Structure formats: C-alpha cells, structure tokens
DNA sequence: GTCTGTTTGTGCAGTTACGCACAGAGAAAG
DNA sequence: CTTTCTCTGTGCGTAACTGCACAAACAGAC
C-alpha cells in the first residue's frame, strides 16, 4: 500500500462518482485520475470501481477505501490547521537553556512570558553541558562569552553584563580590602572550576593572582555567589547583583574589559517561528529595563 | 494538505530520524526525500525538522505529523489486506437479480451457496425493471430471452428452460382440452402483461390467439402460476414446474421453439472476483442436476 | 429521429520529478 | 590530529508522469 497519492485520487473518485469530478477537485487532468486508479487496482489486484459511461461506481473494496480515506483526509486537514496554527500562535513547550549566572534576570522575563501566553509550558535548562540547539534540545539559548559561531545558529547580542570585584563585609573586616590589583597578595579568591573558562574576568584574574590564592572553585555560578556571601573570599559578581546586596563591598569597580557579553542563540530552523520571536522580542524589551547592566 | 506522498515521506523521516534511512525504506533516492520535506515545509510554512549533520530531528509539528501518519499507515495497511483478502475470500454482500420465473430453481442454489460460504449476505432482487450491473446494482444477473448484448457485461449461457402449455384439472373439466393450436378457439389464456414480451412462447401465443382470449395478464410470473392453478385459463409453464404439480394437465407438450434460454450475466469488472466465480460455478454445477429442463 | 452535453479512454508531446554523482560537513575512532 | 564513515545538500541528465487533444459512447432533451 505504497503511493498514498493514488489512494487520495481513488478516494475522490469514490466520493464524487466520476473521474472528471475527481480530476477537477484534485486539480489534475482526468487522464491522470484514470491512470492512478488503474495503477492502484493493478497493485491491489482488485477492482475498486465499476466503469460505465456515467462515471465510476465504487465496489465494496472501493467503498471500504472511501471510508478509510475519508477519515484520513479529516486527520490530515486537522493536522494541517494544527501545524499552521502552531507556527502562528504561541503555545506548547518552550525550552530555554542558559548559562547559570543569569537566572536571576531571566526568570522574571519567563514569568512575564508565561503571563502573556498562558498556553506555553516553560522549561529552563541550566546545566554543565551546553545544550545543543540542533537535535531540538532547546528553542533558544542564552550564551555568555565570545560570540558563538556554530553553523545553523542565529546569534544576536543581548546585553553586556558589567562585572565588578566584590567581597562580603565579613571578609573585609577580617582581611582588609585591596585598593588595586597590586595589593592582591595574600588575599583569597573565588573562581570558576574550569581552567579554560571563557569569562574574560576569570582570564584576567588568572593573570593577576597565584593559583593557590583561589580557595574556592565551582562550576556553579550560584555557588560562587554563596561562597562570596559566606566571606570565603573575593570574587566577581554582576554589578546589578552586588548592588542588590548591601552586605557586599565593592573591591574593584566594574571595568569594560571584564564585561561578559550575553548572546541570544536560536536555531535557524526555529528562529522564524512566532513562539521564538515572541520570546526573543520580549527578552530584548525587558533588557532595556536593566540599567545597571548596560 | 494535498500531496499525501510527501506526508508519507515526512512520516518515515520523523520515524527514522534520518533522510537516508527514510529513503532506503521508501525505496527512493535520498535527494527525493529532501525535496519532499522541503516542499511540504514550504507549503505548511513551518519547519517540520531541524537539520543537522547526524540527521533530521522532528520539531513539535514533525512529531505531530508522526503520530497522525503512523495511524494512517496502519489504517492503509489494514485496508490493503482487507481489500486483497476480499478478492480471494468469499464474504460480504452478494446481490443477484433475476427474472421472476426461476426463483424456484434459484433459491436452492442460493441456499447451498450460503451454506458453503457462511460469511455472505445474500440479496435476491426480482423486480420489474432490469437492474443494471453497471452502477453496482448487482453482482450477477439471470436474464432470459435473447442473449443480452450490453457492453462491459460478460454473458454466459446457463440453460434452456423447456416450456409447455398447461391448464389446471378444473379448467379442463370445465372447458375441455384443445388437442392442438387449431382448437384454441373459445379457450381462455394467461399471458404476460407487456405486449412486447421477449419470451418466445408468448410471441408464439400472440400469433395463435385473439387478444380477447387472454383473460389474465400479469407482470409477475408467480401470478401466472397462481392463475393457472385457480383454473382461470391455459398458460405456459416450465416443464419441471408442471411436472411437480399433479393437478396440472399438459395441453401441448414442450416444443424447442418455446424454449427460453437463460443467461448468466456479470459485469466485466466483477467477473474475475472469487465471490462471483464461486457463485457462477456453483450455479452451473447445480444446473446439471435439473434434467427436466435441458 | 437528431442534437447536445457529459463522461471515459488513448496516443503524443511537454514538464515535472527522480536518480546519479560529487561535494561538504560533522562525528567517531585510532 | 588524522582518518574514516555517515549523512546532508546540489547540479545535471534522464525517465516517468502529467497535460493536451481527440475519439468514442452514452444519457437526456427536443
């Protein structure tokens, strides 16, 4: 039962009773319809229609095909409208993967997105490994560092996060506060786990301090944050996050060279969809209300 | 949602995850698969798959299509086996149309047919008008008289019914029995309603007797029979039917010129089916057990 | 009866779609 | 890092399919 098009032609013939009518509905020549029927009957080794001068009358097999194909056409029509509507309306699952450090900024945007589009189910994936937009693992990704250059991904700049060097009040009370990087000797620092971290401020830090000065390492940005609050050492923090916590003391003010650019990355196949576009535009819009960052 | 073949192609791609695999299953070149997907996505204005070097990953729309097309394929497969089996097994409705006079011979054959093939539902149509084998009104027809010459119908001779002229004993006791057609004057006859009856014995009768001698006319052969038994007049009867009734007196013995040939007529589109063949062969076989007729 | 409209059926010409070959890109293995 | 394999993607020639035109047959109207 290969060649579904022939089934479709046979269905129209069975429905309308004439080859000519079916040809008109299908938008093909009636000769094509005849050939389709002939081929299908030959393959099934059964007559589907009785031919006469007034048209084609379906046999029992033809009537059977009629009912089956009728539901098929309905199913396909529903599928079509569902798919077409799917691209235009914002609904269904929506998967975002992002770097760990920006969840505090991202979640309010997601809340607003959910509020605007009640029919979406949100999934935020922040994990060690980089989720691939290929393979359909996520609809959009928030990436940090150098601009991603993966093919088939459309990359848009989102914002530059200003990073400063901060410590908890308790740390400053215990160890003092270095006025510049020349006074870093003897101080304790917090950094990322991976040596080859792409964050510019971590590369800067690696040049300025000895490895044994970094007393706390973690892959998880939330852990850096917590370690900082516990007074374990001096560490980088987004300026907006430090400003929200009065217990944190600014060691060194943010510098442009420490800025971490954020990127919105979407797969080219999904970038045109209304759902993705709705989220991206909302995200860009929300970013403008973050004056502490830009 | 036209072009069901493209849906089928997309279904296989969604199922297998790769263009190459789908191409192999479908028995086409992988370039064709790519073109089908491209065309379908363009028509739906939605991406069904995310393309990457390892294959095609279905999007939500693609997964939706997958489930719909999966049931479609199952439905078509069942339809196919049903239709193919339909041609080989004897089951379903079986419609016979026949001239009215032979039901007494036909019904036993139908009973045997039903006994052999429990899965058939028999319908015997004996009506004024001639049912057309075109339009699917019947599977086989038993026709009488001159050989039908309708196109697209396969005509086979079945048997020649011997007709004689009979009357009920009560009629003979009241009016006597003519020894030959020369003594028909004053006798009463039973004939068909239609003037242009194709039965040869009625044409013969029309030449021998005056119109007002025909005192009973009916379109229904069973009515002739009954009228004969009631002693209304002299009428033609199949020899076998008269022989079964001892109250009937033979007026004139059957003559070859009165023979009414019966024909088995089937539509060419249905003639090859096993169901029709089974019935036709059974009918021919049964006919040999009617020695009174031939 | 003739005429008209509709339908099926077929040979021929054009066009679309297919198969083929090759290129390019990742991913996995050594 | 290099090699190898698999899979996708595209230009080109061919083959299959489609559209066209015409013929034939039939039903209905007049």
UniProtKB/TrEMBL annotation, chains A, B:
Database matches in InterPro entries: LysR-type_TF_proteobact-type, LysR_HTH_N, LysR_subst-bd, WH-like_DNA-bd_sf, WH_DNA-bd_sf
Coiled-coil region(s): none
Domain of life (superkingdom): Bacteria
Record has Acetylation as a keyword: no
Domain spans labelled HTH lysR-type: 1-59
Pfam families: HTH_1 (PF00126), LysR_substrate (PF03466)
Keywords: DNA-binding, Transcription, Transcription regulation
UniProt record similarity statement: Belongs to the LysR transcriptional regulatory family.
Protein name: LysR family transcriptional regulator
Organism listed in the record: Pseudogemmobacter faecipullorum
């Amino acid at each position: 039962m290969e060649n579904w098009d022939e089934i479709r032609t046979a269905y129209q013939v069975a429905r309308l009773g004439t080859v000519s009518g079916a040809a008109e509905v299908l938008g093909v020549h009636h000769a094509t319809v005849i050939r389709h029927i002939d081929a299908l009957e030959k393959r099934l080794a059964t007559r589907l229609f009785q031919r006469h001068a007034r048209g084609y009358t379906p046999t029992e097999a033809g009537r059977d095909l009629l009912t089956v194909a009728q539901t098929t056409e309905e199913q396909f029509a529903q599928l079509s409208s569902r798919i077409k509507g799917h691209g235009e309306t914002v609904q269904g699952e929506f998967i975002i993967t992002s770097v760990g450090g920006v969840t505090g900024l991202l979640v309010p945007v997601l809340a607003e997105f959910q509020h605007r589009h009640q029919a979406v189910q949100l999934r935020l994936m922040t994990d060690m490994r980089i989720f691939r937009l290929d393979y359909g693992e996520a609809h959009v990704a928030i990436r940090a560092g150098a601009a991603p250059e993966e093919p088939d991904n459309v990359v848009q700049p989102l914002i530059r996060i200003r990073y400063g060097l901060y410590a908890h009040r308790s740390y400053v009370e215990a160890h003092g506060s270095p006025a510049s990087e020349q006074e870093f000797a003897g101080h304790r620092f917090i950094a990322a786990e991976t040596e080859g971290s792409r964050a510019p401020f971590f590369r800067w830090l690696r040049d300025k301090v000895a490895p044994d000065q970094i007393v706390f390492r973690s892959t998880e940005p939330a852990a850096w944050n917590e370690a900082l609050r516990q007074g374990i050492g001096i560490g980088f923090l987004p300026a907006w996050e430090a400003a929200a916590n009065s217990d944190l003391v600014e060691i060194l003010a943010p510098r442009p060279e420490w800025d971490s650019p954020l990127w919105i990355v979407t797969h080219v196949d999904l970038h045109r969809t209304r759902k993705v576009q709705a989220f991206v535009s909302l995200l860009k819009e929300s970013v403008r209300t973050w004056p502490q960052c830009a």
